[in-house]
Amino acid sequence: MIRFALAAAGLIAATASASAQSPFRGPAQLERWASECTNAQGEYDLADAERSCTAIIRSDIATSGARAFAYRQRGLVYFQRGDEPRALADFSDAVWYNPHFAEGYISRAALYEARGEYDLGAADYDEVLRILPTFGPAYNARCWLRTLSGRNLAAARIDCDRAIELCVGAPAYDTRGLLNLKEGRFDAALADYGTAVEAGYE
Question: pTM of the prediction?
Answer without folding.
Answer: 0.86
